[in-house]
Amino acid sequence: MTSAASTSSPADGFTRMAPQTGTGFLLRAGQVLTVVDPTGVQVSDFFAFSAEDHGEWLSSGRTIDYGNKVYFTTGDLLYSNRSRPMATIVEDTCGRHDFLLTPCSQQTFDLLYPEFEGAYHPSCFENLCLGLEQFGVEPDEISTTLNIFMNVWTDETGELHIDPPTSKAGDRFAVRAEMDLHVGLTACSAEKSNGGVCKPIDYAISD
Amino acid sequence: MTSAASTSSPADGFTRMAPQTGTGFLLRAGQVLTVVDPTGVQVSDFFAFSAEDHGEWLSSGRTIDYGNKVYFTTGDLLYSNRSRPMATIVEDTCGRHDFLLTPCSQQTFDLLYPEFEGAYHPSCFENLCLGLEQFGVEPDEISTTLNIFMNVWTDETGELHIDPPTSKAGDRFAVRAEMDLHVGLTACSAEKSNGGVCKPIDYAISD
To answer: Can you give the residue ranges of the DUF1989 domain (chains A, B) (predicted)?
Structure first.
C-alpha cells in the first residue's frame, strides 16, 4: 500500500492526480497554478508551451542562464526558448526543485533501473505526452522539465546526487502565467526520485 | 587587436572559424569531429540533429540524466531527446565544458550585458541558425548547446559562476558521431565567457 491510500482528500478547489499520472490544461496569462505535495517527498514535473505557438517552449537553458542559478524560487522567472518570461514563481514553501533532468521515460527505466528488466513502467514523459496531446503537442517537442520538489545536487566533480525530496506534506509551489500557456503536469513515476514510493500531487488554477 | 590576429594558421586538415562566427555541416556516423582551441581560453558551442529527422536533437537533460553528471569527458555519450546516443566523446585534453547554458543570443546581450545598450551583437545563437539553415533547421529548434571549453560551475547555493575557460592553446575535444548528424558549431561571441576577448576555433572532420 502506498502513502497515497492513507492521504486525505485534496483541499477545496484542488484536483488530485493519482500516483504516476499526469494532466494537461490551458493556463491563461495572469492565472496562478498552485502545485501541492499532499503527502510530502513527491516530485511533480512541469512543462509548458506558448498556447499561441508551440514553437515557443519552456527553456531550462535560458532560465538557468538569465537567472544565473540552477535552483529557482519565489520571484524567479521561467523563460522560453525565445527569451521571454513564460511564468513567474509566486510561492514556494519547499525551496528545492530541479531544472537539470528530463522527465523520466520508458528509456530512463530501461537504462537506469535494471531491476525492471525492460518491462513497461509509467513515466512522466508518457504522462506529459498524454496530457499535452489534446493541444497537438508531439512527444519530440517536450524538452527538459522543471521538476518541482525534486532534490538534485551536484558535487564538486559534477556528479549528480538525487536525494528524496525535502518537501513536507502540504508544501506549495505556484507560478503565475506571463502568457497563455499549454501546461503539462505530473505526479512523478520514478520510485527512486520520490523516496521509494510514488504518491499523488494536487493542483489548482486560480484567477 | 584580438589574440586571433597573432595566431598562426590552423593545423593541416583543420578549418579556422573567425572570432564570433559559426558553421554547419553533415557529420556521418563513424566520422570524428575534432574541435581545437588554437589560442586558449575560447568557447565553442555545439548542437546537433539527427540528419534523418530533425525531430531528434541533442538533449542536455537526457545526457545529464543518463550520465549522472554535468561535466562530460572522454568516453561519455551525448544523448538525443529520444534517448539514443548521438555521439561519443573520444578525446578531451581540457576537461571542463558546460552543458547547462543556452547559446548566447541577442537577448543574452540585451539582458545580461547592459554596457552594449541593446545594440546588435554577434551571437552563437545567430551563428548556429545561419550554420544550420542550409539543412532547414528553424531557430526555435535549437535547444541547449554543449558549450565546449566553457567553464561554468555552481556553488552550494546553486549560483552559477562563469570563469574564463581553462583551455590552453592547442587543447582538443573530439566526438565520434553515432548516427548521421547535422551539426552547428561556433567560435563563441560572448566576451565574458572567453576571458574578455573572442578568438577563433579550429575544427576538422576525419573518417
So the answer is: 17-181
- Which site among B99, B102, B113 would you substitute to test the A interface, given the most A Cβ atoms closer than 10 Å to its Cβ? B102
Count structural domains, chain B: 1
Nearest-angstrom CA–CA distance, A48 and B57: 19
Q: Is A5 within the bounds of a domain?
A: no
CB contact under 8 A, A157 and B71: yes
Q: How many CA atoms lie within 13 A of A121 on its CB side?
A: 24
Q: Using a CB-CB distance cutoff of 8 angstroms, which residues of chain A are in contact with residue B142?
A: 81
Phi/psi-derived region of residue A39, left when phi > 0, alpha when psi is between -120 and 50, beta in every other case:
alpha
**Residue A4 domain-assigned (yes or no):** no
Question: What is the ipTM score, two decimals?
Answer: 0.94
Q: Does A18 touch chain B (CB under 8 A)?
A: no
Is A2 contained in some domain? Answer: no
The string of pLDDT tens digits covering residues B7-36 is: 589 999 999 999 999 999 999 999 999 999
**Would residue B42 count as lying in a domain?**
yes
pLDDT tens, residue by residue, A99-108: 999 999 999 9
- CA nearest to B147 within chain A: A61
Q: Which domain holds residue B94?
A: 23-206
